[in-house]
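Supplementary Methods, section 5.1.

A reviewer requested that the exact input to the structure prediction be made available. We therefore reproduce it here, unchanged from the version used in the analyses.
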Amino acid sequence: MDADTDTVVHSDTLRWTIHKLGEGPYTGHENRLEGEATGEQAGCAFHWTYTRDTPQGDGKSFKLNFDDWFYAIDDRACIVRGSAGRAGIPFATAHVTYRKL
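The structure derived from this sequence is encoded token-by-token as follows.
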């Protein structure tokens, strides 16, 4: 618990092994995946989907479906729109920008 806010502080690290299958398709593996991740790259966009047993701050875990879109802005920046859900129904969406330093 964070003493200042009474919220559970939790982090989760994903270590991917990703394989390019040809012109566009990819597959990926990670320790907590159900099956494998699948991806497709076209132009500056990359679509990545997978189901993962996701640990929670209280020690429990949930199988969540992830649907992530990565958009390269240039060779130093990327915007990601990711969603997580269960039973095909998304309940959380995040928009993140990554920049190489």
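The mean pLDDT is 89. These observations are discussed further in the main text.
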